Amino acid sequence: MRTLVLNAGYEPLSVVSSRRAAVLVMHGKASILAEDGTPISSPSTLMPRPAVILLHRYVRVVRRRPSSPSRRGVLRRDQRRCAYCSRPAATVDHVIPRSRGGNSTWENLVACCGPCNVRKGDKTLDELGWSLDTTPQPPLHHAWMPHELDAPHELWVPFLDHAA
């Protein structure tokens, strides 16, 4: 089981193991906001398994510009949907092909399904008569968050809605 860690201001900070969360609670550094049904037992104590904890002290998070694009990052930004046909995507495509001077930047990479990637090849969108529904851009918010928050645990949802 994984545990959502909220900063003192209730913003999602990270996801840790339930064991690490229990240690933070036992040392008085955090409190349990939501718990899983199964307790953590030791020879001397029995405590609820934390699903969401709140840190008592605020942790300052340094936000940096988005890093260089990666396949995983582009697929995550585009929610694994093809930019051309909206089907599930597993590859990345250059909007302006590299053979025509296109760079590997956030603004030129989109998630793409295999059939569309093959069909597009090294052609431009104008040559094919295709268009993009959205303009590719660097990920703006919550790009720093762990990938576990893409499909959050049901106990985390109220706390993630509060943060948004």
TrEMBL record:
Domain HNH nuclease positions: 69-118
SMART domains documented for this protein: HNHc (SM00507)
Descriptive protein name: HNH nuclease domain-containing protein
